[in-house]
Structure formats: structure tokens, C-alpha cells
Design a protein that fits this description.
two-stranded antiparallel ribbon; alpha+beta; single chain; about 425 residues; 2 domains; about 55% helix
Length: about 425
């Protein structure tokens, strides 16, 4: 059995090499469909992996009070769009004073600017640094970890100490070979002592998470005095089983602060990090569907092309089939030979498509700063699809070759 299979494989390769241009074109057609499938699924997987890693650190036990829900606040056609008021400092202060749910801690913060210039001795950064005013719970509620130094404590915030925690890019940028801890920086003319350096978080959608300065919130309010600053409230619950209760209490507390009547809807949003992840993943599902539609259409065309090349091959090799049958070859042996050719061409197209698809995924990930992951699932699907294409496209030509009459085949010119 194995010698016969080996002989069929050898004949299949000889036949493929004799029709090299036709084979290459067919392989490329198959590869295009597989490339579309693997490439898009690779890019989507990289996007999902990046989003998951960015938001996983926040944990499922943290929720936020914000100006809007994650979804756009719009009514039906012709109706007025709802505009929620910003969350002011007075509101976040009142919330922190009145919200007293057990096993929770409340972080308040705001972004003073996204284009600050930070100075250290005679060096300074480009004006692209974000400066955030935060309280002592901001780091833990945001899932941020320190690479060096310490985080803010209660006394830093209450005493308005001029201290700062920096993103990881400062360690290798502004300070070069100098240890930043206990060094003094200047932001808009105000000096701060560096007490901590954050671990690297990378960049997401062009937003560099490692190029920011965290300072006590009251000092930040004295530096950044622009009107209509929107503050952020983040509540971390130690026990996940208390999450719903904490959310309900937070909503009631904030409704009371805004003096909303029982009949009025919330004019603010509440959301968890995993809610946003689920919404984004629902969008990436459409990209997955698009990948399948594109690849199925292309693979359907490649199946027809592969069947056509095999039918032409059967016709061209009619005399060869007759000779092999006259020498005692069984119909199943003839069918196996042609089916093997189809399978080899299909797998060559599949392998080329997988390689090109992975390269596309790596390229997209590198360009968009995504965390690339090897798309094993897409590769398995691609392999299975190429085998299925070979079975569908090769069955009829193989059957036709096996049923040919040896006498008629020997007389064929």
C-alpha cells in the first residue's frame, strides 16, 4: 500500500511540474482566499489581545461614573440629542464625602492637559506630555503598577505635597542614565519631587500611556484652571459579589447630588471596563464575518479553478490513463493519483496563504502597535478549508479518470 501511495505522490508531483504555470496560478487563487481569511483574523486577534491586555488590569471589580454611557446618547430620528452636563469638582467632592458603601475605595481624577512641557535641569520634553490630577486611590483603581519608587499616600494628597509619579518613558528619556527618584521636575513653573515611576503600559490607538505625569489633584487644580473641566470617578469594590449593590448605591448618591427627581432619567453614565471590552469585541465580530465572506467567495472561485485544471489534466492524460489501466492499474489507483494531485495543489495554496496572512497580521500589528498573537485557530481553519476544497474540487475529476475505458483511452489522440 505504501509503495503504491509513494508512487502516486511521485506521479502527482511530476504532473504538477509539467504544468507549472497553470499550477502556480491555481495555487495563487487559493492562496488569495486563505490570505484574506488568515490576515484579517490575525489582525482582529491582535486588536482583541491588545484591548484585553489594556483593560484587564482594571479588573472586573471596578466601575466608573462618567458624563455618558459607552454607547452614544441619541434619540430617534428628528428628536433632540441628549447632552449630559460635565462632572464637576464640587460633584466629585460631594460624592466622595457621601458615598460610603462597604469595601470600596473611590478614585477621583482629571486630565489637566495633554500637551505639557516637563523640564529637568537643562533638558525638557516635547510638549506632548499628559498631566493628570489624581488622589491616593488612582493607581490601584486604574490597575497601574510601579516599576520604582512609591505611590501617592493619604498625606501627599491631603497636604498637597509637590510630588509626582511619572510614566516609564521618562526614565529613559528626560533623565537618560540618571535615576529619576527624588529628582525635581518642573511643570508650568511648578516644581515636583519624583516619588515613583510607573511600569510600561505601551501605546493604544496613538495614545501613549507611558508619557504622563500624575500629581495631587488640588495642586493640579491650581495649575490648570480652564473652565468646564470634566472629572472622573472610579470605584473599586473589593468583593465582586458587592458590585451590583455598590453600583446601585453610587447611582443613588450621584442622583441625589444632582437633585434628580424619581421620574427623571440619569443625566450621567456608569460603566465597567469589561462593558467596553464587550462592545469593542461585538464590533470585531463584524470584521470576522467580513473575513469569512471575502475568503469564502475567493475560495469558491479557487475551487472552480482547481476543478477545471484537474478536468483539463484528465483530458490531456487520457492515453496515460489507458496505458496504466491496460497494465493492470485499478480504477481506485487512478482516482487516488488525481485526487493526490488536487490535494497537493490545495495544500500548497493553503501554506502560501497562511504565510502571507501571518505576514499581513504582523504588519498591521506593528503599524498599529497591537500585540500580535499567532493565529492558531485561523491556521487550523485555513488548513481544514484547503483540504475541503481539494476534496470537493478533486472528487469529480478523479471519478471521471477512474471510469474511463482503457480501450477508448488507448485510441485517444
Amino acid at each position: 500500500m505504501f509503495p503504491l501511495l509513494k508512487e502516486n505522490i511521485r506521479i502527482a508531483f511530476d504532473s504538477i511540474k509539467s504544468q507549472l504555470l497553470r499550477t502556480i496560478l491555481t495555487v495563487l487563487i487559493i492562496a488569495i482566499g486563505i490570505t484574506a481569511l488568515v490576515g484579517i483574523l490575525s489582525a482582529v486577534s491582535a486588536l482583541e489581545n491588545t484591548i484585553s491586555s489594556d483593560f484587564a488590569s482594571m479588573g472586573a471589580n471596578t466601575f466608573n461614573l462618567q458624563q455618558y454611557e459607552f454607547s452614544t446618547q441619541r434619540r430617534g430620528s428628528g428628536e433632540r440629542e441628549i447632552v449630559n452636563p460635565i462632572i464637576s469638582y464640587r460633584e466629585v467632592y460631594d460624592f466622595k464625602e457621601n458615598f460610603a458603601y462597604p469595601q470600596t475605595q473611590t478614585s477621583i481624577s482629571f486630565t489637566g492637559t495633554g500637551s505639557a512641557e516637563v523640564k529637568f535641569e537643562n533638558d525638557k520634553t516635547d510638549p506632548e506630555v499628559s498631566v493628570l490630577g489624581v488622589n491616593e486611590f488612582f493607581l490601584s483603581n486604574s490597575g497601574l503598577e510601579l516599576e520604582d519608587g512609591r505611590e501617592f499616600n493619604y498625606f501627599d494628597i491631603q497636604n498637597n505635597n509637590n510630588v509626582a509619579v511619572l510614566g516609564s518613558d521618562f526614565a529613559n528619556g528626560l533623565f537618560k542614565e540618571t535615576n529619576p527618584i527624588n529628582k525635581t521636575i518642573s511643570v508650568r513653573g511648578v516644581k515636583f519631587k519624583v516619588i515613583g515611576i510607573l511600569e510600561s503600559k505601551g501605546s493604544t490607538f496613538g495614545n501613549n500611556q507611558d508619557l504622563r505625569v500624575l500629581i495631587p489633584i488640588q495642586i493640579a487644580r491650581s495649575i490648570f484652571t480652564q473652565p468646564n473641566i470634566n472629572y472622573n470617578i472610579s470605584i473599586k469594590v473589593d468583593d465582586k459579589q458587592l458590585m451590583e449593590g455598590a453600583q446601585s448605591e453610587a447611582i443613588i448618591t450621584f442622583r441625589n447630588i444632582r437633585k434628580l427627581s424619581p421620574l427623571e432619567e440619569n443625566n450621567f453614565g456608569i460603566g465597567k471596563s469589561d462593558d467596553l471590552i464587550n462592545r469593542i469585541f461585538s464590533i470585531t465580530n463584524y470584521l470576522n464575518i467580513a473575513a469569512w465572506i471575502i475568503s469564502i467567495i475567493t475560495i469558491f472561485g479557487s475551487s472552480i479553478a482547481l476543478m477545471n485544471i484537474m478536468l483539463v489534466s484528465v483530458t490531456e492524460r487520457t492515453r496515460e490513463i489507458g496505458i496504466r489501466k491496460a497494465l493492470g492499474a485499478k480504477g481506485s489507483t487512478i482516482a487516488t493519483q488525481f485526487f493526490m494531485e488536487t490535494l497537493i495543489i490545495g495544500q500548497l495554496g493553503g501554506i502560501l496563504g497562511i504565510l502571507l496572512g501571518i505576514l499581513i497580521g504582523i504588519g498591521v500589528s506593528a503599524a498599529a502597535n497591537f500585540d500580535f498573537v499567532t493565529p492558531w485557530k485561523a491556521m487550523l481553519w485555513a488548513t481544514g478549508i484547503t483540504i475541503l476544497v481539494a476534496i470537493i474540487a478533486g472528487s469529480y475529476p478523479a471519478s471521471k479518470a477512474a471510469k474511463q475505458d482503457p480501450v477508448d483511452s488507448l485510441h485517444y489522440e
